[in-house]
Amino acid sequence: MADLKRKRGRKPKTVVDNSADAAGISSKEALDDGVLSATPVETATTNGDPQTHRRGRGRPKKGGKHEEEVDRDIAASPERRGHRFADHNGDITTVLSGDLRHGAELAAVAAAAKAAPSMDAVVKVFCVHTEPNFSLPWQRKRQYSSSSSGFIIGGRRVLTNAHSVEHHTQVKLKKRGSDTKYLATVLSIGTECDIAMLTVNDDEFWEGVSPLEFGDLPALQDAVTVVGYPIGGDTISVTSGVVSRIEILSYVHVSTELLGLQIDAAINSGNSGGPAFNDKGKCVGIAFQSLKHEDAENIGYVIPTPVIMHFIQDYEKNGAYTGFPIIGIEWQKMENPDLRLSVGMAHNQKGVRIRRVEPTAPESNVLMPSDVILSFDGVDIANDGTVPFRHGERIGFSYLVSQKYTGDDAQVKVLRKSKILEFKIKLNAHKRLIPAHIKGKPPSYYIVGGFVFSAVSVPYLRSEYGKDYEFDAPVKLLDKLLHAMAQSIDEQLVVVSQVLVADINIGYEELVNTQVIAFNGKPVKNLKSLANMVEACKEEYLKFDLDYNQIVVLQTKNAKAATSDILAMHCIPSAMSDDLKT
């Protein structure tokens, strides 16, 4: 089988070179063949830096005719790890032929006609990005430019994709038929749902434009029209199709799993952030990624209105984006009859078994491993983890959780040792030991004796090992990425990122991306705690216990004295990042 890639679209302004060194799924990556891959792909940038990828111990690359090359940022969400393709509504795909196809084409034409009056609300987004440099965290990479699409909504606001303005330095908007670019301000970025909200202070921008109205979630075979500014020209572009599937999708920006629409309209680079209209001229979604596969044509993905409205209402309610909550568990299907009998389930009972509970999740106080979740907020959960969605459709019960807001309560019914119990749990955002993104902040670092210590994140791994980091990164880091759970809210995985060679660190030069377990016998909880312990150390030696039973020992006085010379040699302004100084 050929390479399977889901891609995001954002058009490059100028193509110069390729780079995979990015934070989050870099917006640079939107530039591969006019679309952005479901995992990091090598992309063309403007004034981008070439990336050197380090080799490491990792999983062997899969090969063979029937293997799928699917690079994902992170493991599936906790409730779906181990069965990330389980939440489907039956893999319903629209296949049109004869009169049915002709009818769909007519409906698509009608939809395009209805969308025409709303096209003036579709804008072109120009962004200059300056990404962090994880290999040299005290500086940033060279800036580059990109263009994408967006649209005007009520309240003098504009929506586009998060990856379109990620690590933005400057954002400008241009209306249809205008020759003026207006400076925009980014109000909020929803990394998980790949949506960003912008505004423009210049009153002239809002003159003569009516905001788009949102429509309901479309049904299968409903006509949709995608409008935007894709690659291939500078004017507005319109493509039409139908809704062919509605299910929980992996959002490639950070591999979160939320409701999504699959359509058969083309979504190319530059389409990202553009609206999808129904046959009444109302917006039913935001174009954000596409599927590239030799056996598939014109498969695009749209963020539906329930996800969009969740983002907008979250911002209006809290003044900022707080994210989509999760239920902090890993779960197992209960389709095997013997498994159901062993936990005391009656013939008419259905549900999913809890494998592990996140220690940092609020529900860890009430839920336990081996509990069987029977229902969530009064909705019964099937043995395969799905719940009724619409007529003839089912969807993963994580959809019910994603409809909630951070801090909301939910009622959960569980079976524990043959007894039915009900609990009220508080939902919260997910705390990962290795986070999927760094929320636009610069990476943290600490330097002593030439040793550069960093906290690991998915963007860090992608920067170090490229788009194939799931194969090339050290096995122990991958194990932490896929299976480890944070034991506290502020826990981080700290590594020796590299060693800046000097006389003080002779013999340690080859240490690269090795986890720091303890310092002078005390466990390392996070990067800040390590920096504080080293700075306050009065002992004769600095002793770092590393993974693979390695140790690093330096004389305290000499190591601290050599640090300033090493910083000067490499033009590093400070021995630690600003966030560690507070």
Structure in words:
There is one protein chain. This protein has 582 residues and is of the alpha+beta class. Helix content is 15%, strand content 31%. The chain has nine helices and 31 strands. It has helices spanning 98-115, 305-318, 337-342, 398-402, 458-465, 469-472, 475-483, 527-535, 556-569; strands spanning 5-7, 11-12, 17-19, 43-45, 122-129, 144-153, 157-160, 168-175, 181-190, 195-199, 223-228, 237-251, 256-263, 275-277, 283-293, 296-304, 329-332, 352-357, 372-376, 379-380, 386-388, 394-396, 409-416, 419-426, 445-448, 451-455, 494-499, 514-519, 522-523, 541-546, 551-555. The strands form six sheets. Strands 25, 26, 27, 28, 29, 30 and 31 form a seven-stranded antiparallel sheet that branches. The chain is globular and about 75 Å long.
Architecture blueprint of SSEs:
Blueprint: E1 5-7, E2 11-12, E3 17-19, E4 43-45, H1 98-115, E5 122-129, E6 144-153, E7 157-160, E8 168-175, E9 181-190, E10 195-199, E11 223-228, E12 237-251, E13 256-263, E14 275-277, E15 283-293, E16 296-304, H2 305-318, E17 329-332, H3 337-342, E18 352-357, E19 372-376, E20 379-380, E21 386-388, E22 394-396, H4 398-402, E23 409-416, E24 419-426, E25 445-448, E26 451-455, H5 458-465, H6 469-472, H7 475-483, E27 494-499, E28 514-519, E29 522-523, H8 527-535, E30 541-546, E31 551-555, H9 556-569
